[in-house]
Amino acid sequence: MNEPILTAELERAKREGELASGCAYLVTPDDLSPIRQAGLKARGIVHFQGTLEIFTNWLARQFPSGLLPRDIVAASNHYSPDALATLTPMDLEAAQSLKPIYPSEKLNLARQMDEGQKAQLARQFLQGFPPSWTVAASDIPVELDAIGGLKRNIEAALAISAELVVATGQSGSGKSTAVMICLLRIVAENENLALYDLSHETKSVTNAFSVLRRVESKRVIVHVGDLFIFGGSLRTDLESLFGQDVLVVGTARSGEWNEHLSRYLDDVAIVHDFQRFVRTDFDPLIKRLVQYVPAPIFRRMTDAQRKAKFASSKSQLLIALREATDSTNFTDTISSEFENLPDDETKRLLVMVGIATIARVGMSEAMAREAYEQSASQRSFDQALSALGGIVADAGGGRLFARHELYVRHILESLTPRDEFFYCMSRILKTFVKYDTPIIKYVNRQDAALFRFLLNHYYIFESTKRFRSETLGIGHYGENEISFQLDGHFWLQYGLFMGRLGKDEVAVELLTKSIRAYPDNIFASHALADIQLKMARSRPVYDAKTKALISDAVTNLLAQDARHETRTDQYPIVTLCNGHIGALLAHGQTGEATELAPSYYDKLTQLEKTVAAPMVTSARQRMLLFASTGEWNLPLRDLHEYDGRAANPSLRSSARKGRVGRDHDRGKSRKR
Q1: What SS3 class is residue 283?
Q2: Residue 252 lies inside a defined structural domain of this protein
Q3: Domain containing residue 26
Q4: Is residue 174 located within the same domain as residue 108?
Q5: Most exposed: 278, 604, 618, 646, by fewest CB within 10 Å?
Q6: Computed from CA positions of residues 627, 628, 632, 634, in that sequence, does the dihedral angle turn out positive or negative?
Q7: Are 195 and 308 in the same domain?
Q8: Which among 492, 373, 489, 372 is positioned nearest to 442, based on CA atoms?
Q9: 126 and 12 share a domain?
Q10: For residue 124, what are the contacts with CB-CB under 8 A and spacing of at least 6?
Q11: Angle 584-585-586 (CA atoms, 0-180°, nearest 5)?
Q12: Does residue 651 belong to any structural domain of this protein?
């Protein structure tokens, strides 16, 4: 009864019950006391005293023919018998990740909520937790002015048989809710359309798409939610849909789209820039807040004062909602909530879940329990989680999230002591020790993203800068050397981190370990070559060791460039041009550098024809200037050209401007 798997099953039952709490039946031979039975009942568990033999006999009577995986899929996803008949046993897992969404069903669920349920759901949503389909179908979300334009763009994409629509915008802008609202309405208005939600836990998107065409005869819209979870690999998955009249709709933060995802998906996507709320949205926003959120000061205001409050705090929708209702600064509100938590152990659980929220994937309750109980001594996990009600919750999909990333960032960056921050990072990492290596191969998609985040050199480096202690970052990796010594990704991130600190000799050693652990890791090979060129440039003499460093790096990068992997986050030829020419010039080898310049320029020119990346354009222009005038203008770099940040695009700045808005006509011109 104390196993984490039981709690995980209870949470699953709650999710399947939509609005109900769910119910579990526990069969054990124990004669439990009335107090113990009442305690179980409070958690939704009904106890039956019985043996395993009694239970199996009962199962045999209830299901004389057994219960097959196909039966489970039929019951949970409502697939027809004819559709199920086309699926092989290997297809069933993919089929389970595709949930059909029926607008009428969601609307009925929303209408059937009593006032208490609706108010609770509304408060949770308005405080920043992600929306559900039931919330989207209800009148809880505000009909923002920007929703109309988004709906028109999705309908236009359907009209031209586009493959992908992406709604971009800032964190907390309301784009995810808007997409769900639009899809429910579009499908409700067209009986020839079907809507499916693709789970982030699916192991193979391509397999799921393959199953889709066998279980659905209508034209299909697939909602994939946050594209960050799928990354650039979605490009290959979309190619499997070519000619099948399926529209995929997702969301992405503006910075992530501009700096990462667009290079994979730009030519197949119609992009809609979801703008911030405007003055015409004030009235419906005020109505929802007065109706659902207890905010005495806001309620006592006049209508003009309420509108003035929104106007003064106009930012992301979430921040504006909180500042308007709390009548105080957003960060002050967060600080007060955090400091008033009952004890340090409860705060620690919030920090752990907060870190997973920053990683954008949350964490399963079983993982949170395991990480928390490694150090908790005063308060049980259930007590701590209960104390975090309204701050931490299962937002759907069986994973715990803190209220919102904007909320969490303030806690982690301003309120959490540095030792506590890294301690919590390490506790979560320890939950992955039980898996075989490479870790990301043996966990689901979301846990793999969390594992990568916990080791991401860019995030660790930025954290050490914030805390002004590189020792903490080194200790974070050093503490886990033994546990993850066979994992190539661990050594890659460790090596890149040491390279950022300028400890190049150590970085080379660590990256070499990464390649030995995972020989096919092109990121490690690229990073190693980059550091070798940096070391060669910094050496005092042009001796045999300098030449060997250059030779190894050039050979490695030329081999990578020959693979023509243009849709990646790294460009070997850019690293080669900058590093090789720079190293030669640093040692006075101007003649050799001049001879290489034309061929390098040609390679960069060819690459620029296939990718639109600033670093490629900058390198080509630099090479042209050098070949024409002999002037080499490579800026001093305290960081490498290859920094690997794109391995976790949520860490990249969203302030950089780029092409974020397109109307559907531009999408037409790129239609394959």
Answers
A1: helix
A2: yes
A3: 4-67
A4: yes
A5: 278
A6: negative
A7: no
A8: 489
A9: no
A10: 390, 393
A11: 90
A12: no
In DSSP notation, 215-235 reads H--SEEEEEEEEGGGTGGGHH
Residue at 229: amino acid letter: I
- Token readout for 534 is 């940096």
For the stretch 176-234, pLDDT in tens is 889 999 999 999 999 899 999 998 878 788 888 888 878 888 889 999 988 888 887 78
Q: Quick one: 177 and 38 in the same domain?
A: no
Whether the ω angle into residue 438 lies within 30 degrees of 0, i.e. cis, is yes
Q: For helices 4-16 and 365-373, what crossing angle results, to 10°?
A: 150
Task: Say if residue 56 is in the same domain as residue 121.
Answer: no
What predicted TM-score, i.e. pTM, was given to this entire model?
0.63
For residue 393 the two structure tokens come to 């919750």
Residue 513 lies in a domain: no
For residue 194, give the H/E element and its range.
Answer: strand 193-198
Give dist(CA 557, CA 571) in Å, integer.
9
- β-strands 246-253, 193-198 pairing: unpaired
The per-residue pLDDT for range 387-406, each reduced to its tens digit, is 887 788 776 667 888 877 77
CATH code of the domain covering residue 232: 3.40.50.300
- The answer to whether position 669 is within a domain reads no
Rounded CA-CA distance 66/556 in Å is 57
**CA–CA gap between residue 228 and residue 87 (Å, rounded):** 29
124 close to 293: Cβ distance less than 8 angstroms: no
Note whether 233 and 138 are same-domain residues.
yes
Pairing label, strands 164-169, 269-273: parallel
